[in-house]
Design a protein that fits this description.
The chain is an alpha+beta fold and 629 residues long. 28% of the residues lie in helices and 32% in strands.
């Protein structure tokens, strides 16, 4: 990278330390020679499985593939050329004023006109600012490189036509899904029938909710990739742990034998090391690919979120650009596999017969593959009722999946209060464990083999072992508030207490108090740490950030008495309308996805981690189990 002596010279590439040759600008505003950035892109992508982007050599910011995904050799061509620095790089060889040179004069350049794209001397710069025609031009001193670079970046037009950069986008072709200029309309698209003004199609796109729909799909895509990444990182830890266990077992046995095992031990450990490295390398490559897709989807989300105040031209250009990139990204992800590798070692039974041993142990690599993206869009899935559990003596207000087939239910205000673990299967159910108490339990959440239960009798949160229901700890609510719904996210416990949502650490220390409207009984927290709560009296669902700043509020004439709110692994929100007899499914951004009708008085709706089963408590007494497919 460039030395400190070169940092003030805008014409020097920070990679090759030479004058720019066809400088390409990255979204992070760093600029490199075409050849330099092309070589840099290709090099790290060789070790990745189906690469979709790269990191900036300087700031390490992720850059989504600017050209065809999966073809890193062409990505540099998709980066915009910084024409101003290209011209400046050539003119700085003589460091003379371009305007004076046209009059056969030689004056040292002190400034640069961004509009004219040339270096000028102090005298020309003065008259440049005075002249009526050029007084609006952007002129900055060359001795202030940061100002020059900022002006160069600001000069790049985002609303220009992709095919004709010197012309503005004014029209849109619906047949080809392209934003274009008038020249494009009279040439390539002259036979197209669905051509509208950019303002008209932008208004239709915004009103039609297509931006929010695409934003939700990208968000769900990111959440699913995050789950895959978490599983694969856990697999990495498991491989390390298993490898360590095998190593310890090997060493312990090795100490019991004599020198004859030296050779066998070395052969075995070498094999173990090789298998471990190969397995981890394979997973690391897959994780890198998943991480790149997560970065790519976040980049898409950021760009889509930034369109709110963008011009119509920028909006449609960016919208189609992100949509097309996202569609190609999903296609490129279809054939990508999720790896799961397990190590296994079967110690030979004949080890003690030293002279007969030919191999220390047999190492097995259990490697399974499955598609990365297994879930359908929640908008397209069907909910099929499998069976219904009748609990006439119960009054259940809350529950939570402990595993994909076991759910914990809090029995509230019933003849037998307490907890109930139910095993849910495809065609039946069974009672796993039950705990009776005189206290009133309202809601329950699960975290690391522990159950967090809101106890309204003691006005506290009780923490129990999910294995035997023994109490681990208990913490009292601030100001003796009555706890209702509970949610856990990133080592924090969130408790809805009608007039406030209390945020606690897992050990019971109060972290924050969020004032809310009275009758806010249920709460959930999204992957972005946004707090969503429902209010049964105002018929609203509200989302706030970690500081309590409102982000959005959902109100619908079809939603009445929203007594519960929960989310699935992809951050889709499920709001039970106890009076409207339906469940509203929202995106994490507060837009309606669909409504599940004809569900009598849904107290809550929980979706399993796999996303293939959900449990709905109807009328506080009936548990309905649905298959999602």
């Amino acid at each position: 990278m460039a030395s400190s002596n070169d940092q003030n010279d805008l014409t020097i590439c920070s990679v090759c330390l030479e004058k720019f040759k066809t400088p390409r600008i990255l979204p992070c505003s760093h600029i490199f020679c075409h050849c330099c950035i092309s070589s840099y892109i290709v090099s790290p992508c060789k070790s990745k499985e189906a690469p979709v982007g790269f990191s900036c050599p300087l700031c390490r910011e992720f850059v989504p593939a600017p050209a065809d995904i999966g073809k890193p050799a062409t990505w540099a061509e998709g980066l915009p050329v910084c024409k101003i620095l290209d011209k400046l790089s050539r003119s700085r060889e003589s460091n003379l004023c371009a305007a004076c040179q046209r009059e056969n004069e030689e004056e040292e350049a002190t400034d640069i006109c961004i509009t004219c794209e040339e270096a000028i001397c102090a005298n020309c710069a003065k008259y440049h600012r005075r002249n009526l025609i050029t007084c609006t031009h952007v002129v900055v001193p060359l001795k202030e490189p940061s100002v020059v670079l900022q002006s160069v970046i600001s000069s790049i037009k985002n609303g220009s036509c992709p095919e004709h950069p010197d012309k503005e986008v004014e029209l849109h072709c619906g047949e080809h899904r392209r934003a274009m200029c008038t020249l494009c309309a009279t040439t390539e698209h002259r036979k197209c029938l669905d051509v509208q003004t950019i303002q008209s199609i932008t208004e239709k796109t915004k009103k039609g909710g297509r931006l929010q729909k695409l934003l939700r799909k990208v968000n769900n895509y990111e959440q699913e990739l995050l789950m895959v990444k978490k599983k694969q990182e856990s697999n990495l830890s498991e491989i390390d742990s298993t490898s360590d266990s095998i190593l310890e077992e090997t060493k312990k046995l090795r100490m019991e034998v004599n020198a004859h095992l030296d050779k066998l031990e070395n052969e075995h450990l070498n094999e173990l090391s090789k298998v471990t490295k190969e397995s981890k390398d394979m997973l690391n490559k897959n994780i890198d690919s998943v991480s790149d897709r997560i970065h790519f989807s976040r980049h898409c989300i950021q760009r889509l979120q930034n369109l709110e105040d963008a011009s119509d031209a920028c909006f449609m250009k960016e919208y189609h650009h992100v949509r097309e990139k996202f569609e190609v990204l999903k296609l490129e992800t279809v054939n990508l596999k999720e790896h799961e590798i397990k190590l296994k070692s079967n110690i030979s039974k004949e080890l003690r017969k030293l002279k007969q041993v030919e191999r220390f142990s047999k190492l097995e690599v259990l490697h399974s593959r499955k598609h990365l993206l297994n879930r359908k869009d929640i908008e397209d899935v069907s909910f099929s009722l499998i069976y219904e559990i009748q609990l006439p003596d119960a009054n259940i207000c809350g529950g939570n999946f402990i595993s994909d087939e076991v759910i914990a239910l809090a029995k509230y205000n019933s003849t037998k209060k307490g907890l109930w673990l139910a095993g849910l299967k495809r065609n039946t159910w069974d009672k796993v464990r039950e705990s009776d108490t005189d206290d009133t339990y309202f809601d329950v959440q699960h975290s690391d083999n522990e159950l967090y239960i809101t106890n309204q009798t003691n006005r506290s949160v009780i923490v129990m072992s999910s294995n035997d229901f023994t109490t681990v700890k208990e913490f009292i609510m601030q100001d003796n508030l009555v706890p209702y719904g509970i949610s856990i996210w990133e080592n924090f416990v969130f408790v809805a207490c009608q007039i406030a949502i209390l945020k606690y650490g897992l050990q019971g220390e109060l972290v924050y108090r969020y004032p809310v409207e009275k009758s806010s009984l249920y709460v959930t927290v999204t992957h972005r740490s946004h707090i969503v709560h429902s209010n049964v009296k105002t018929d609203t669902v509200t989302c706030i950030d970690e500081k309590g700043v409102p982000l959005w509020k959902y109100v619908s004439p079809k939603l009445s008495g929203p007594c519960s709110v929960d989310r699935d692994a992809l951050d889709n929100l499920y709001v039970g309308g106890s009076k409207s007899n339906n469940v509203h499914i929202l995106s994490s951004f507060g837009s309606l996805i669909r409504v599940l009708e004809c569900i009598p008085c849904p107290a809550f709706m929980k979706v399993s981690e796999r996303g293939d089963m959900c449990c709905v408590c109807s009328s506080w007494k009936n548990i309905r189990v649905y298959e999602i497919k």
